[in-house]
Design a protein that fits this description.
The complex is a heterodimer of chains A (110) and B (150).
Chain A lengths: L1 E7 L2 E10 L1 H15 L4 E12 L1 H16 L3 E5 L5 H8 L1 H4 L1 E3 L2 H8 L1
Parallel strand pairs in A: 2-3, 3-4, 4-5
Antiparallel strand pairs in A: 1-2
Helix pairs in contact in A: 1-2
Chain B lengths: L9 E6 L5 H14 L4 H22 L8 E9 L2 E8 L27 H8 L2 E7 L2 E9 L8
Classes of the chains: A alpha/beta (110), B alpha+beta (150).
Chain lengths: 110, 150
């Protein structure tokens, strides 16, 4: 699991690449929390994530909580099947905003 | 790729520790691919093993003074691929566990509790048995059938 952070027009885009299992969540844990939970406008790109388990969902719930406490905006985008199915089955999309693509994410954060 | 109608049971065994959870997921991934199963079934089996073994590592042996072990078995049977996760920890009927439901409030959202829902959704069925002081969870997957979780 790799993590790339890009700042663009006041937005923070975090691209995750690889497998977001327990090992992947451990690898990005500290840095991901430090960015996703603190920056005011965060978009998380899952278009290059090919697997996710509940430990990955947990990382997004933690960041979503931190963002909500600070009244920051956080959005997840780009998840393809079957990763998207894990997101909807787990209910993550009911507590964190999930959209289809970068354009929709940018519109949400505007 | 053609696949056989049935196959012998293959087995993975490891100590029930955090570092071995992904090893078990890697093992079932390799088994499912070598059995010629579709990418959707490989994904579903990998996810279910990771969720089930995570529960074993974090909860089944929580009250045990010594390190426990777990076993993952996989085989083909008729139209299905099946896997079984066994541990000798505290009794816990995953198949009967109550689903806490979908949460709608991020501030009060729980950190865990989603694994059982994922296993139910991504498999064709769960069966639990307590035998000889061991938990045995068996899951079935349709080989190359409609994507699990639909």
């Amino acid at each position: 699991m790799e993590m790339f952070v890009d700042e663009e027009d006041g937005l923070t885009k975090i691209a995750l690449v690889g497998r977001l299992d327990l090992k992947g969540a451990d690898k990005i844990d500290m840095r991901f929390s430090a960015v996703a939970g603190i920056r005011p406008k965060v978009a998380i790109d899952l278009s290059q994530v090919d697997y996710i388990a509940s430990m990955g969902i947990r990382a997004f719930v933690m960041s979503g909580k931190a963002a909500a406490q600070r009244q920051n905006k956080l959005v997840i985008f780009g998840a393809a099947e079957p990763v998207h199915k894990v997101i909807t089955t787990s209910g993550l999309d009911q507590i964190v905003t999930v959209v289809a693509n970068w354009e929709a994410a940018r519109a949400y954060l505007a | 790729m053609s696949v056989p109608a049935a196959s012998p049971v293959e087995r993975f065994e490891a100590p029930a520790v955090r570092d071995r959870i992904v090893d078990a997921a890697d093992w079932i991934d390799g088994w499912a691919r070598s059995a010629g199963l579709s990418d959707d079934v490989v994904f579903a089996m990998r996810l279910c093993v990771e969720e089930a073994v995570t529960n074993v590592v974090f909860y089944a042996y929580a009250a045990s003074p010594s390190e426990g072990r777990f076993w993952v078995e996989a085989w083909l049977e008729g139209p299905e691929a099946r896997l079984r996760i066994t541990d000798e920890g505290a009794a816990f009927d995953v198949a009967a566990a109550k689903d806490p439901g979908i949460e709608t409030d991020i501030e009060n959202a729980t950190m865990g509790g989603r694994g059982v829902r994922l296993m139910r959704s991504f498999s064709q069925g769960l069966a639990y048995e307590r035998r000889n002081d061991a938990n045995m969870l068996t899951l079935a997957f349709l080989r190359g059938g409609p994507p699990a979780g639909t």
